[in-house]
Write a structure and sequence with these properties.
This protein is α/β, with parallel strands linked by helices. The chain folds into two domains: 153 residues, 2-Layer Sandwich (Nucleotidyltransferase, domain 5); 164 residues, ATPase, nucleotide binding domain (Nucleotidyltransferase, domain 5, 2-Layer Sandwich), CATH 3.30.420. Helix content is 41%, strand content 19%. It has ten helices and ten strands. The strands form two sheets. A five-stranded mixed sheet has the order 3-2-1-4-5, with helices on both faces. It has a five-stranded mixed sheet with strand order 8-7-6-9-10, sandwiched between helices. Strand 7 and strand 8 form a beta hairpin. The protein is globular and about 60 Å long. The structure holds 5'-O-[(R)-(carboxyoxy)(hydroxy)phosphoryl]adenosine (KG4) and zinc ion. Zinc ion (ZN) binds next to helix 4.
């Protein structure tokens, strides 16, 4: 079975083709970073309009790279939420139109389900059950994953998502949007230990997170006229605080669930210091840690094509409409209803 995946939930337009026998056949992506940079963040209306401009050529190029015509496909998967509604509607409408015109099965995909299944695109794949740490611009979740659609959210952020905290602290440090990768780069020049920021909510039981206080701590520590070394040292201390907090909570969650595999996905999963710390913690505790390749941590359509394929492969029936949802708790997903 071959599935075309479409991702338009935020500021990346992406298309990919996944084949059940041959794996990922192609993936194409256009990032809108340059478009939104001057505004310091994503402008929803501009995002929707740019998706409209980019989606057609990307579909053609993904199909060409896969060596397929649209009629060779079995299904079209698209990100139906959570995300920016106008942006989601572009991918949803294009997917629904193509599916109707070419008699293909249409599969709405939950963006965070796609993120947590992204390691399945790698040669070394996790087996169910596993614990997933999902860290993106909009979400920070610890999820007990029993199978496709069998999710129990064990912990989440009570305020800012980790990626959002990276982006906001980056802004405080005068770094350009998108802040996460820029902050990580700056932290590489920082000296550990000069600043000491809190590890929020690690001193009490539970698996929830809170990152907004960390941003305030950075603001308080920041000198009026910071030198490049001040900024780098603060970036380093912030990154250390986030990484240690996430590592403590993952270790605690693994003890609670007894899972022997940990999946780390979402944009912040591209952070090298986080990857290193979680791998070390895994090695200490006999837990195998799985990551997508770094380019599939951030938004992409390969994960959407895979998630759509996995749902079709489990017997999910096609869905006729184009339901998109700005908010969509992962815990509302159900296991695949098998076709009658
Ligand atoms: O998953 P993603 O591409 O989009 C959402 O679904 O939100 O995640 C984007 C987030 C942004 O907040 C970005 O700053 C962060 O991931 N990010 C990083 C790194 N690369 C991306 N944060 C820290 N270190 C990185 N290397
Ligand atoms: Zn994402």
């Amino acid at each position: 079975m071959r599935v075309l995946g479409i991702e338009t939930s935020c500021d990346e337009t992406a298309v990919a083709v996944y084949d059940g026998d041959r794996g990922l056949l192609s993936h194409a992506l256009h990032s809108q970073v340059a478009l939104h940079a001057e505004y310091g963040g994503v402008v929803p209306e501009l995002a929707s309009r740019d998706h409209v401009r980019r989606i057609g050529p990307l579909i053609r190029s993904a199909l060409k790279d896969a060596g397929l015509a649209i009629g060779d496909l079995d299904g079209i998967a698209y990100t139906a939420g959570p995300g920016l509604v106008g942006a989601l509607m572009v991918g949803g409408a294009v997917a629904a139109g193509l599916a109707a015109a070419h008699d293909l099965r249409l599969v709405p995909v939950h963006h965070m389900e796609a993120h947590l299944l992204a390691p399945m695109l790698e040669p070394r794949r996790p087996e169910f059950p596993f614990l997933a740490l999902l860290v993106s611009g909009g979400h920070t979740l610890l999820v007990d994953v029993e199978g496709i659609g069998r999710y129990q959210v064990l912990g989440e952020s009570l305020d800012d998502a980790v990626g959002e905290a990276f982006d906001k602290v980056a802004k405080l440090l005068g770094l350009p949007y998108p802040g996460g990768p820029a902050l990580a780069e700056l932290a590489g020049h920082g000296r550990p230990g000069r600043f000491d920021f809190p590890r929020p909510m690690t001193d009490r039981p539970g698996l929830d997170f809170s990152f907004s206080g960390l941003k305030t701590a950075v603001l308080t520590a920041l000198p009026k006229d910071p030198s490049p070394q001040d900024r780098a040292d603060i970036a380093r201390a912030f990154e250390d605080a986030v990484v240690e907090t996430l590592t403590i909570k993952c270790t605690r969650a693994l003890e609670q669930t007894g899972d022997s595999s940990l999946v780390v996905a979402g944009g912040v999963g591209a952070n090298l210091r986080l990857r290193g710390a979680l791998e070390q913690a895994g090695a200490r505790n006999g837990v195998q840690v799985f990551f997508p390749r770094r380019e599939f941590c951030t938004d992409n359509a390969a994960m959407v094509a895979y998630a759509g394929w996995a749902r079709l492969a489990e017997g999910q029936r096609a869905d006729g409409g184009i339901p998109v949802r700005a908010r969509w708790p992962l815990s509302e997903l159900k296991p695949v209803p098998v076709a009658a």
